[in-house]
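Structure ticket #2291
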Amino acid sequence: MTNDPKHPELHVYEEGRDDLMDTAMGFGVFFIILFLIGVAATVISLLVK
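Resolution: structure written out below.
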């Protein structure tokens, strides 16, 4: 009964999860990537002029 898929509350997570920090890290990493792309595009546009 402990592995019955109809009872998800009986399944124990292998690791603790912090959804808020996971979401915040996702937004942070995505922001940094977009920021670096923007900086690179600005530098390239200034060098082309």
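Closing remark: Residues 20-49 form one domain.
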